[in-house]
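User: I'm curious what two different proteins look like when written out as structure tokens. Can you demonstrate?

Assistant: Sure. I'll show them one after the other, since each token string lines up with its own sequence. Here's the first protein:
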Amino acid sequence: MTKEIRKELNKARRLYKAGKKEEAFEIYDMHFQENPDEFDHWDKIRYCWTIYYLHIRDSDDEDELVEYCEMVTEIVKQEDINESPVCVYTQCVFKILVFYKRNQDWDCLLYWLDKLNPELLNDKKGGSEDRIYPSKKEEYYNFKSKALLECCEFEECIETSQKALDTFSQFALNGDVWHKFRMAKSLRELDKPEEALNYLEEVIKVQKDWFVYKEFAENYCRLDDYDNALKYARQGVTANGPVNSKVNLYYIIYKILKNSDYNFAVKHAELFLAIKLESNAEIPIEIEDMEIDEDNLDKVALEQEIRIRWLELEFESI
């Protein structure tokens, strides 16, 4: 290393410690482009921290995040944060992971997850006694199983969630329940409804959300057990949740009821159609052939009528 470059890098180090990160970045960046071999381990670390603070930490621009996160992962390696307090490589990758998860870009999320070795992430949880947040290692598995499910990589999703369940004895924010839920959804897609139901039985003990009831209904439909499918589907309808999100639940009930209670089944078909028309989504031929008066569909009134009727039926059965 030439004395002049060493002098410049020492100057950048002092600027960095003084909080003058822009000035430090300019020196590091200029010399790294010309003489990367002159940088020792700590020069590279400090250079990457200036990149993080100036171009990654507060950025919400995808192009900027990708450019500078790629740069960091090429300059330094991931450190074991079980042994070191912080790792600039890990910090940068998690920033872009959060960005892609928020934007539901699952393919890109998987790309960046592949740049991490989970064994080098610690399992120290954050937060307080009132609310515990997942560790970096737990977050890694949460991100990966979710992305794999959304990318229809069902077998790998199951493997990842099972690995998480085997790795952690305790989870933050009911993380174990969500892993079991994703495993159940993957098993249904792999046409293994009985195995899926086993996981759902554990999920429903904690999460009584409408979409859990929907999963039960879909799996029982796969098993031609329409009594149980209807039982869970109607619970999903009366549970709290946005009506538009329940669109496929109404279609399930229509298909179950159409041969036993046609008039009530039609109400569900009408609500299904009303929701689909709002987004110009594809409509099954079976629904199109029903000749429903599309101009007079009232989504709000239909949802209220259906919900009230199911609550009445539930009360009558007590």
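Here's a second, unrelated protein for contrast:
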Amino acid sequence: MEYAILYLELNLFSLILIWIILHKTRGLSKMVAQRNFVMSIISEMVFFISDTWSQMVLNHVIPGDGRILVACKTVYFFATSSMCFFWFLYFELIRDTSFAKDMRRVRQSAILMWLMGILLLGNLFGKYLFYFGDDGTYHRGPLFILTYVLSYSYIALAWIRIILNIIRKDTKQDKKVLIRLLLFPVAPGVAGIIQFIYPRLPVACVAMSLATLMLYLIWVDELISLDPLTGLNNRKQLNLSFEQLKRGKGEQEKIYLLLVDANHFKHINDTYGHLQGDNALKLIAKALREGCKHSGRRAIIARYGGDEFVVLASSEGDATNEELKNNINARLSELVEEEKLPFDLTISIGIADLDDDDSLKDLIEKADAAMYDEKKKGS
């Protein structure tokens, strides 16, 4: 009885924790990535409830027979598989991978989850995964290992893909965030191995709930630091990044700032509406990301406000500055052509180099003056 009470307390703690996380996520974001995060939490709650229920029946805390136990375990294993699947999709979506954009591949990736469902249905008759004896004793079947392999393959695959993402030199992701994501499966994975070897140790639910809390905190951190429309850094994050970049500046390194402004943006909003205006800002943000990526240098990109954007980068000479500027303009022209916009969309870019005593405000003012000169040339 003491074991059952301990199991109940730990699982209730875990269930309440992730219910709070689920409640806090409501209304914060409608991004596809966050919908998958919510689905993983719901699967996790089903996992906790079915696990707790079966243990309470096994320890005679609540009434139940073999059919209840089989039903609980069946739901438990399918919830594990669906939880891991939605975690996998969440990791792909927040990293904005090409896989996540291909719906055919996303649907195909669900095959392991549906295979688990088919095996669990067959197990009701074949007892090859698990079964309960006449005395209520839980037994593992000859194919029990598949309940772990089919589920945790998603986590292993996500882990491998994040590692590859980290070691790629041209990755556009923040490597600190990627490393934090890489740490996520460690606790649930270790707990899963422990509970596989020692089934009576109630560690899986606690480890999963704490890992989910970590994911939630990463998400909240992203919401605080990102502009919701473009997904770029916001002004607060720009200030933090500038201070970090300035402190870490090497002796021969030159830091520069590009101030980017959409030309005739008020005309676009007034003539074509705010939805088209928002679309224009998103295209500019995309051009900045991809233009900076092709430059081969890591850049900090932020929406400064309205139709103004900032790019912070480093180089060893002015030629790189002009090259980056040309890359951004060229990519924007390509995107405008691809989108077949009903209006012209161009930008003006002012560039300023950082002097040792410059603040971010000083640097932006210098870039603003350079941008104003460019606008006059283009008008």
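A detail about the second structure: The first strand starts at residue 130 and ends at 132.
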